[in-house]
């Protein structure tokens, strides 16, 4: 079977798109806690946390450049324990993707198609993403090459259109309530960096696996700057209180802008960017989930599990939440914070511990062949 490869540049694009799409969707830096006017400071903490998370994930992956995290887990912990641990990571792909799809579906229904059943929108998104995953990671990478310039241009135009109308006094007083609200405002966004778990599956597919950490670093930096821009402009337009109460604050900020007498409703640019970004992110999620599942259970081709995985994904998306308010209740530090951070720290903490113990015992697991293959 042909070995798929895609460029490190494409990994960078995919990670930027996945991370920024969360900010476009519901801006958790502002809506998930009480950071209010200091949400921009939470964005800076998100940058630091993102660099740490990607170092943990890619740092282990580049030590086993030919193995996915599923194969690394089986190599370090044994087949049984490694497979069980891998299931936690594979579940994260499915669950995070379902949250993304549900948010997008709710926005489409509320803003444009109020009479359309959510099952129809969800099924449409899942079918398109599954079809892309069926084509393989090379195709998804090429799609990212095409989509990224459009995604970036529409996002920059959206942010730029807010600049001259923004009231930057809304960002004051700076840190008036101390650092605790800033920390609280960053927790959910830090938890959402569980999206970066896809890197553990994708490293062996890169043309230069050893440079994966560098590509991921640049992606974290670029996406954090874009998220900072979205946060500052949204607070500048809506103010901290209204922004924190709004379900889709970035879109509402854009809807308040009228560039001229005949040019308004420019939020369509951000919605279009969200749709493009969602397609890339979801295709990557379901590809990684199928690839990891196939490796965990010794299935010859990941494509064999795409259909049942897509069906499961659609069911979870529809039935996991009753409405957008339940999603927002979940995306809080008390729930999503603990949940998302656990998805990162538990599996990778155990894998790093196993790796370091083996090194202390004089073994070099990275030099051993086989393992998960």
Describe the structure.
The protein is mostly helical. The chain has a single domain, classed as Up-down Bundle (Amino acid/polyamine transporter I), CATH 1.20.1740.10. It is built from 16 helices and no strands. α7 runs parallel beside α10 and α12 runs antiparallel to α13. The chain is globular. It starts with 7 loop residues before the first helix and ends in a 13-residue tail after the last helix. 53% of the residues are buried. The C terminus is likely disordered.
Question: Which terms would index this structure?
Answer:
0% strand, mainly alpha, 373 residues, Amino acid/polyamine transporter I
């Amino acid at each position: 079977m042909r070995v798929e490869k895609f460029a490190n540049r494409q990994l960078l694009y995919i990670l930027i798109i996945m991370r920024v799409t969360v900010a476009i969707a519901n801006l958790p830096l502002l809506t998930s806690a009480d950071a209010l006017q200091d949400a921009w400071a939470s964005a800076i903490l998100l940058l630091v946390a993102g660099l740490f998370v990607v170092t943990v994930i890619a740092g282990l992956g580049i030590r086993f450049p030919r193995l996915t995290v599923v194969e690394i887990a089986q190599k370090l912990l044994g087949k049984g324990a490694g497979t069980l641990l891998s299931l936690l990571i594979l579940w994260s792909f499915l669950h995070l993707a379902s949250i993304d799809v549900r948010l997008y579906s709710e926005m489409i229904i509320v803003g444009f198609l109020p009479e359309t059943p959510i099952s129809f929108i969800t099924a449409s998104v899942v079918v398109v993403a599954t079809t892309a995953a069926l084509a393989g990671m090379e195709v998804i990478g090429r799609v990212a090459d095409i989509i990224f310039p459009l995604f970036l241009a529409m996002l920059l135009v959206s942010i730029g259109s807010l600049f001259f109308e923004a009231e930057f006094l809304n960002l004051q007083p700076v840190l008036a309530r101390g650092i605790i609200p800033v920390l609280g405002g960053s927790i959910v966004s830090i938890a959402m960096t569980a999206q970066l778990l896809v890197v553990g599956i994708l490293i062996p597919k890169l043309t230069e696996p050893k440079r994966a950490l560098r590509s991921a670093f640049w992606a974290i930096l670029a996406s954090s700057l874009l998220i900072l821009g979205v946060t500052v402009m949204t607070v500048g337009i809506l103010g901290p209180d209204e922004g924190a109460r709004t379900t889709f604050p970035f879109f509402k900020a854009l809807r308040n802008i009228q560039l001229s007498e005949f040019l308004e409703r420019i939020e369509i640019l951000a919605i279009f960017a969200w749709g493009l970004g969602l397609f890339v992110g979801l295709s990557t999620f379901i590809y990684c989930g199928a690839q990891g599942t196939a490796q965990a259970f010794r299935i010859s081709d990941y494509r064999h599990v795409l259909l049942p995985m897509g069906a499961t994904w659609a069911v979870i998306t529809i039935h996991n939440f009753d409405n957008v308010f339940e999603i927002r209740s979940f995306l809080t530090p008390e729930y999503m914070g603990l949940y998302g951070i656990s998805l990162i720290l538990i599996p990778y903490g155990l894998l790093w511990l196993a790796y370091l113990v083996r090194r202390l015992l004089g073994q070099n697991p990275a030099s051993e062949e086989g393992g998960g293959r």
